[in-house]
Design goal:
Layout lengths: L13 E9 L2 E6 L3 E4 L2 E4 L5 E5 L4 E15 L5 E16 L3 E4 L10 E4 L2 H8 L5 E7 L6 E5 H6 L2 E4 L6 H15 L5 E5 L11 E2 L4 E7 L12 H8 L9 H14 L22 H12 L2 E2 L7 E2 L7 H12 L17 H10 L7 E5 L8 H18 L8 E5 L15 H17 L1 E7 L7 H5 L3 E4 L5 H8 L7 H5 L8 E6 L6 E5 L13 H7 L7 H10 L3
Parallel strand pairs: 12-20, 12-21, 13-18, 13-19, 15-18, 19-20
Antiparallel strand pairs: 1-2, 1-9, 2-7, 3-4, 5-6, 5-9, 6-7, 7-8, 10-11, 10-23, 14-15, 16-17, 21-22, 22-23
């Protein structure tokens, strides 16, 4: 620390003495439950951090229970005693630097002190390498900061029921990071177009640039997809012909090999998953030829080939999807020459093309039956690019996965296999290559267990579902049991934060984002009072519906 440590032993803030020590549980007999210092009131309250002045090092504890009990005083008369139960969470190294764990235990009779905002900030705030996220709910607790490297590089889950303030929290966190850091690289997958209002294209307040890419403008060329992803989108496994998968692999590899020289590759180095161009129309023509192929036989007319008449369902699906406007993002191209198309796609995703700090992909217009596959493809492309980047430090990237339970479910994994495999790989290996995840969900108990188990940080807002509460309880430290019991009753925008990004898990009031996302509840009262606005037109809505443009 390069600033002067505060006084952790303010006489006016002494509130009791240790009465009993049982492992990490410490019982304090309090003489006061609130004290004042410089006209500011400090109180013993559930979840608050207090200091225990042990003989060789000061200990930090979290209040877990407060009760009144009857007991004898010095004159053996029955009096009410204030009993405070605390859980030890750390100690002050060299008298001022907080460290988790227990160096030594306190003894009976040790004095205990309430902590000022200055003391808490000195111990817990990481202002040098962090960004502000909100205010601690402890009275006089001050601001809470999160470490950028740990928050965005070690995977974070933001969990809370609908209406708890998840969108508010996500917008506030990203705005705070962008305000402090001029070169953030964040790729945000927005399922409901909620965040356009929170992140305008020209963010004048922060002097930052954001780009919004709608499905209509999304460029994700089909030839960038792996064979598994192509089969997921275009092949119906229920009507697949025998050996159909092997045929598709052979055809795509052959077609890609024909263009290998354009990329400086030899045909022998090309695999079915090498990200180089092949002609989709020629691909369909080859399949048609196989579907009608006659081979040499005992008669001059020959005999039907091994795939004769067996590829009709595949052909219909390929032709239908390649002409379906909902799948246009796979077939529209910016560079007919194709050589630079892959680079242009990634430069747009990463914000390199227009020097933007945040790219928001509005996936609200995407067909529901391809959403999880597209999320999986984008995740894989980001990971593989970072894997092949010689120095991961050059372009650290965070992927924001909103409403993740929709495409990363714990059950029904077969239908979402591609997406789950891709995201779980990033969850397990992304940290080494500079790809972090920010996973947002209102149903943690229904989310991929692998993804959540790899998250180093949890921001938990109000949860009302008992299954979700039970699951989250196992994710958080034991000494936060009081806070966990409060999860159903947290205010909107109030969260319990735990993990490597904070010095100590705590309850925080998230700072309001400016501007806010478009996630507020619909105002029924005002609308039902005022009636339809002037000029309201059903035809206008139908036109947007038909054109799939909001």
């Amino acid at each position: 620390m390069d600033h002067i440590a505060p006084n952790f032993h303010e006489t006016e803030l002494e509130f009791g003495r240790v009465r009993d020590v049982d492992g990490t549980a410490v019982t304090i007999e309090a003489t006061h439950l609130s004290r004042k210092l410089d006209n500011t009131e400090y109180a013993v309250e559930l979840g608050a951090f207090v200091l225990i002045a042990a003989q060789k090092s000061d200990l930090i504890a979290s209040v877990s229970a407060i009760r009144l009990v009857e007991g004898p005083d010095q004159n053996k008369s029955l009096v009410e005693k204030r009993i405070v139960t605390c859980t030890l969470v750390g100690f002050l190294k060299n008298g001022s630097v907080f460290e988790r764990g227990i160096e030594r235990y306190p003894t009976v009779g040790c004095s205990t002190y309430l902590l000022t905002e200055t003391a808490l900030s000195f111990m817990f705030s990481t202002t040098k390498d962090g960004v502000a996220i909100g205010e601690r709910c402890q009275r006089g607790g001050g601001s809470e900061h999160v470490r950028v490297d740990r928050m965005f590089g070690r995977h974070t889950a933001i969990l809370g029921t609908s209406g708890s303030g998840k969108s508010w929290t996500v917008a506030s966190l990203i705005q705070s990071a962008m305000a402090s850091l001029p070169h953030t690289r964040i790729l945000f997958l927005d399922l409901h177009d909620e965040y356009r209002a929170a992140f305008p294209t020209k963010f004048e307040r922060l002097d930052r640039k954001i780009q919004h890419i709608s499905v209509q403008n999304l460029q994700l060329p089909y030839w960038l997809l792996s064979i598994d992803e192509l089969e997921e989108l275009f092949v119906s496994q229920e009507h697949a012909a025998p050996n159909q998968s092997a045929l598709l692999r052979d055809l795509i590899r052959e077609l890609k090999s024909n263009h290998a020289h354009n990329y400086g590759l030899s045909a022998e180095k090309v695999t079915v998953d090498t990200p180089i161009y092949f002609s989709f129309s020629e691909f369909i023509s080859r399949i048609k030829a196989k579907d009608t192929e006659m081979v040499a036989g005992s008669t001059s007319a020959g005999k039907q080939g091994p795939f004769f008449g067996k590829l009709s369902n595949l052909l219909m699906r390929l032709e239908a999807r390649s002409s379906d406007p909902r799948f246009a993002f796979l077939f529209q191209t910016k560079q007919p020459g194709m050589l630079d198309e892959f680079a242009a796609t990634l430069e747009e995703f990463f914000g390199i093309q227009n020097d933007t700090q945040l790219t928001i992909l509005d996936l609200s217009g995407l067909a529901s039956d391809v959403l999880s596959t597209v999320v999986g493809v984008i995740t894989r492309l980001c990971f593989e690019y970072k894997y092949w980047d010689a120095n991961p430090e050059h372009l650290p990237l965070t992927l924001v996965l909103e409403e993740a339970h929709n495409y990363l479910p714990r059950n029904d994994s077969a239908r979402h296999r591609i997406c789950i495999e891709r995201v779980e790989r990033v969850a397990k290996e992304g940290r080494k290559y500079g790809v972090g995840l920010l996973v947002i969900s209102q149903r943690p108990s229904e989310l991929s267990e692998t993804v959540l188990s790899q998250c180093a940080n949890f921001v938990v807002l109000r949860l009302t579902n008992p299954n979700d509460q039970s699951y989250v309880r196992n994710l958080l430290p034991d000494f936060l049991s009081v806070a966990v019991e409060m999860l159903p009753y947290l205010r909107t925008g109030e969260a319990v934060i735990s993990g490597e990004a904070v010095e100590m898990p705590t309850r925080v009031r998230i700072r309001p984002p400016n501007p806010v996302p478009r996630s507020e509840d619909i105002g029924y009262l005002a609308a039902w009072r005022a009636g339809l606005p002037a000029g309201y037109s059903v035809n206008t809505v139908l036109s947007r519906w038909r054109q799939r443009q909001r």
